Amino acid sequence: MRSVSLLLLVVSPPFVAVNAWKNARNALSTPSDIQDGQTGVLMVLPPRQTDTGTKRIPDVDHPFIAPGPNDQRGPCPAMNTLANHGYISRNGITTFEEIILGSQEAFNLNRDMISGMVAGNMLTRGNPFVNKISIGGVSPIVPPLPGQIDGPETQGIAKHGRVEGDASMTRSDVHIGDNRNFNQTLWNTDLEILAQFGDDGPDGPATVFNLQTLTELVRQNLESDQLLDPEVYPTLKSGPLALKSLKFAVPIRRLNIVFGTTQQATKHIITSFFMNQTFPENWFRAASPVLGSPIPAQIAAALPEWVPGHNDENGVFVADPQAPAPFNISPGCANYWDVLTNAIPGPLANVTGVFKQNVDLLTGILFNGSGCAEPIAPAGPTNT
Ligand code: HEM
């Protein structure tokens, strides 16, 4: 099952400002839209936060509370952490706006970057008509898309394929284990690699994740999954091989969000987010809005032998097809082509009313962040 990278899609400020205004205006004037018994909820792009400095996180209004048995949690340590602290709904069923606001507040994430991430996930694994997405699996609170145009259930971000992929740092591959919950054995292996390659830091010798550690983590996970999982599909995007965009670069890039003001990915900090899914004590969010990082490209450059692809039915690694012209002009554009063509269900191109307004907002965010000259309509397979 192919999965794709949503992090390369980051929007430009003028586009989102115009759309925010249009949506705020429409929210006032749009009559209720009922489709297949569901009431549409118009999405409104939240403003950029005005307070963009550092501050202590969590504040007193957001204590850690462990999830209850009916709360959804899934493969993303960041979303789980936000839910465990109530920066998004503690039940794990959240919205476009809530994730953007929570990520700005708690991680000081650049609004346009997080908008692109939420847009891709909402279009592939949420219900963009009612504006709900599960950060775990199927939930009775998130209905199937009207007309069940993507199958009888809305899956949530833990569903393998489209976004969730193999060879993660702390989750098993879906074909050989639990792809949703933290895996202590995998984490122990990660820490062994850290102990070999890490920098010295406040937690002791070889306890800070550096580029070499991250590169070796990627190499080790890709190599072991290639052996262990005959159906492995580790990469997130297709596209020109020269672009060398690897799935692993994506979560690794996200790691720099969790450094906070220490500017160091220490063992203690990373363990808190990955294993305990909570903010470390005395943690301060970054001192300015977090956007990107050179780390993914550096890791990819260090691993030229790994190109986007997957194992075929005989367990032989096959490279993904490259994006065709004119979508091969940049990594971002090739990735946009991949997401729209292979991940976002095709029937979303033909929806109406509030459903269409929301899909247009989300696909517009992806297009505007892509660097492509022309947009593509969603054309991915359904019910996968
Ligand atoms: C706030 C910024 C975010 C950060 C710091 C972050 C961090 C991470 C990290 C570190 C992983 C990899 C875990 C591992 O390899 O074991 C991950 C995986 C994932 N995240 Fe997030 N994430 C963020 C936002 C989001 C959002 C907004 C969504 C969707 C609503 C999302 C959905 C996912 C999914 C589906 C995976 C699994 C991908 C895979 O299988 O490779 N993330 N995230």
From TrEMBL:
PROSITE patterns: HEME_HALOPEROXIDASE. GO terms for molecular function: metal ion binding; peroxidase activity. It comes from the Eukaryota. Keywords: Heme, Iron, Metal-binding, Oxidoreductase, Peroxidase, Signal. InterPro entries: Chloroperoxidase, Chloroperoxidase-like_sf. Pfam families: Peroxidase_2. Residues 1-20 form the signal peptide. Its cofactor is heme b. Residues 60-301 form the Heme haloperoxidase family profile domain. PANTHER family: HEME HALOPEROXIDASE FAMILY PROFILE DOMAIN-CONTAINING PROTEIN, STERIGMATOCYSTIN BIOSYNTHESIS PEROXIDASE STCC-RELATED. Belongs to the chloroperoxidase family. This is Cloroperoxidase.
